[in-house]
Specification:
This protein is of the alpha/beta class. It has two domains: about 1-255, inorganic pyrophosphatase (n-terminal core), CATH 3.90.1640.10; about 265-390, Diaminopimelate Epimerase, Chain A, domain 1 (Roll), CATH 3.10.310.20. It is about 40% helix and about 15% strand. It contains 15 helices and eleven strands. It has helices at about 1-15, 30-50, 55-60, 90-95, 110-120, 170-185, 190-195, 200-210, 225-235, 240-260, 265-270, 290, 295-305, 335-345, 380-390, and strands at about 20-25, 70-75, 120-125, 140-145, 165, 275, 280-285, 310-320, 325-330, 355-360, 370. It has a six-stranded mixed β-sheet with strand order 6-7-8-9-11-10, sandwiched between helices. Strand 8 (about 310-320) and strand 9 form a beta hairpin. The radius of gyration is 22 Å and the shape is globular.
């Protein structure tokens, strides 16, 4: 992977490439998004190098001794570089695998809009298919989408020939692994890519373990597709006790994700956030009620709403210390009636039912606070309902 990073970044920084493909993860930049971007860009580079035919192209170059510019495939972590430290499990995992921060490409490292417009370019979206306002400029360049969220076509702005793999599974890494497997088979290369980059196997596997809570039957986040891909990946690995290793991997990643004791409320709000319309939706690796106990938490929410030009905050919390717990709260200091309306909309949601049980939270009387009884419902399940609400307002 070091060779991939080195060659790709050198070509990008020197403008020495033929065609540019950006593989862009979602704005939350969780481990699933980051790993999908890195692994799929790595695979596309490998695929390109396997299928190009230098002998066939020599005749079309004019001067046969002139170096030919190659296509490059760049993974983009869709957060500013300064916010990377907030992604505690990503930072922990990448550094543990020897991935240097300086080799990563972040959202503010380049003017991507200008870069796409001045180059022969493509964009692959991984782990999302609904673009935020600031990312709308990607849309005309999108040629492929790989996502595990429920399909949302309310703002489908892509070309008719875009190739989409959208399937509700536990982890987007499952779909990326399947796509690599299928494309390799078409080349009659089968598992050659995985064998050439065992680190990609490890990264996909670890992320699926985290996203499915190590295939917990109580939480039921894993699908048969996740299980099949896990079996496939582990068939390529050496080791006799992979089941026990799964739990160790899961526990280490959970501990890294929860390690937010040094983060301020403002940083926690930026750690894992999505914006849907004018609704700010941060997700915490702690319960919302614990977040709200931190000094200055509601003030930080108000500032985040103003900074992002949003009117309502939908706070989502999760804790895995003693089994999974989830809670949520809504807050709107400027338009409290809108928070009440969205609360009612979420209470009445049926696809799926979120199982919201209202409680009064001391110290946060201005919030609508709920325990979430449907433990399998993450932010992915909230977003379509929020989209429906914002579209009608």
């Amino acid at each position: 992977m070091d060779e991939f990073f080195g060659t790709t970044l050198t070509s990008l920084n020197t403008n020495n490439f033929n065609e540019l493909t950006l593989v862009v993860g979602n704005e939350s930049c969780d481990l699933d998004s980051a790993v999908c971007a890195l692994v799929f860009a790595n695979f596309l580079t490998w695929q390109y190098n396997k299928i190009r035919c230098k002998v066939c192209t020599k005749a079309h170059r004019g001067e046969v001794d002139m170096p030919r510019k190659e296509d490059i495939f760049v993974p983009v972590l869709n957060v500013d570089r300064s916010d990377y430290e907030l992604k505690t499990e990503v930072v922990y995992y990448f550094r543990s695998k020897g991935i240097n921060d300086s080799n990563l490409v972040f959202r503010d490292d380049y003017d991507f809009e200008a870069l796409l417009n001045k180059s022969k370019s493509k964009v692959v979206l991984v782990d999302h298919h609904v673009l935020s306002k600031k990312d709308k400029f990607f849309a005309p360049f999108v040629t492929e989408i790989i996502d595990h969220r429920p399909l949302d076509k309310s703002d489908w702005i892509y070309r008719e020939d875009v190739r989409s793999t959208i399937e509700t599974v536990g982890s987007c890494c499952t779909l990326v692994a399947q796509r690599i497997k299928d494309l390799s088979a078409l080349m009659a290369k089968d598992v050659d890519f995985f064998n050439s980059c065992p680190l990609c196997i490890e990264m996909l596997r670890a992320t699926i373990i985290l996203d499915t809570v190590n295939f917990s039957t109580d939480l039921n986040k894993a699908t048969p597709h996740d299980k099949d891909i896990m079996q496939f990946l582990e068939s390529l690995m050496k080791g006799n006790n992979l089941e026990a290793d799964r739990q160790r991997e899961h526990d280490a990643l959970i501990a890294a994700r929860k390690n937010v004791s040094n983060l301020t409320p403002a940083q926690l709000l930026k750690k894992d956030v999505k914006i849907v319309g004018d609704v700010l939706i941060p997700s915490f690796p702690i319960l919302v009620k614990e977040f709200l106990k931190r000094p200055g938490s509601l003030e930080a929410v108000s500032e985040a709403l103003q900074k992002n030009n949003c009117s309502v905050a939908l706070l989502l919390g999760m804790d895995l210390t003693e089994g999974l717990q989830r809670d949520t709260a809504l807050y709107s200091p400027r338009t409290p009636e809108k928070a009440v309306q969205l609360s009612k909309h979420l209470e009445e949601a049926t696809n799926p039912s979120l199982g919201l049980s209202r409680e009064q939270l001391s110290g946060a009387k201005d919030c609508s606070y709920y325990w979430q009884l449907n433990l399998s419902a993450s932010r992915k399940q909230y977003i379509p309902t929020v989209n429906t609400f914002t579209a009608n307002k």
